[in-house]
Design brief:
The protein is α/β, with parallel strands linked by helices and 203 residues long. The protein has helices at residues 15-28, 46-52, 87-94, 97-102, 125-137, 179-202; strands spanning 3-9, 33-39, 73-81, 84-85, 109-116, 140-141, 167-169. It contains six helices and seven strands; from the N terminus they run βαβαββααβαββα. It starts with a strand and ends with a helix. The mean pLDDT is 94.
Length: 203
């Protein structure tokens, strides 16, 4: 039976979504793994999103907490708001209390990816503070460490991401994930999918 990896994300302007698609490619490259993209529900009105200049949502399906137990592993993605996950993703996690009560997600691997506006905007604080969400569910946090290779040590170019997971910088919204950032995202998908497969095989 295939190992199911759910890539669950929130994206306002598309930066996190681009990373999510690359992460899915990486996960799909692992034999015996089925990766699926999900968006969490939007909490802002169309009027507010319009004033923010946010593009229309893609056709990636919107998840409810009831779908989460079907997965063997997760990779959660979100933009940063003041050094922490965006409220939309936090609201989704807040709605999973009934899963927490029954420990439906406990023991499953989970990773994190993210975007920030700037270099000092939360590339480490965002995933670090998000780990609390995993801990309360008993999820097993799987960081990528420095397994992505030489690109993790790049200092001459602006590069998002960290040992916690793949990342990108949005800037004023015009900057898009770079080739290196996408490579690290692909690696994260492959790495966590491989880990999830091992977990399931040993269960």
């Amino acid at each position: 039976m295939a190992t199911k990896v759910y890539i669950v994300y929130y994206s306002t302007y598309g930066h996190v979504e681009k990373l999510a698609h690359e992460i899915k490619k990486g996960a799909d490259s692992v034999e015996g793994v089925e990766a699926k993209l999900w968006q969490v529900p939007e909490t802002l009105s169309e009027e507010i999103l319009g004033k923010l200049g946010a593009p229309p949502k893609s056709d990636v399906p919107v998840i409810t907490p009831h779908e989460l137990p079907e997965a063997d592993a997760f990779i959660f993605g979100f933009p940063t708001r003041f050094g922490m996950m965006a409220a939309q993703f936090k609201a989704f996690m807040d709605s999973t209390g009934f899963l927490w009560g029954a420990q439906k997600l406990a023991g499953k691997p989970a990773g994190i990816f993210y975007s920030t506006a700037s270099q000092g905007g939360g590339q480490e604080t965002t995933p670090l503070t998000a780990v609390t969400q995993l801990v309360h569910h008993g999820l097993i946090f799987v960081p990528i460490g420095y397994t992505a290779g030489a690109g993790m040590f790049e200092v001459e170019k602006v590069k998002g991401g960290s040992p916690y997971g793949a990342g990108t910088f949005a800037g004023d919204g015009s900057r898009q994930p770079t080739e290196l950032e996408l490579q690290i995202a692909f690696h994260q998908g492959k790495y966590i999918a491989g880990t999830a497969k091992k977990f399931k095989g040993s269960a």
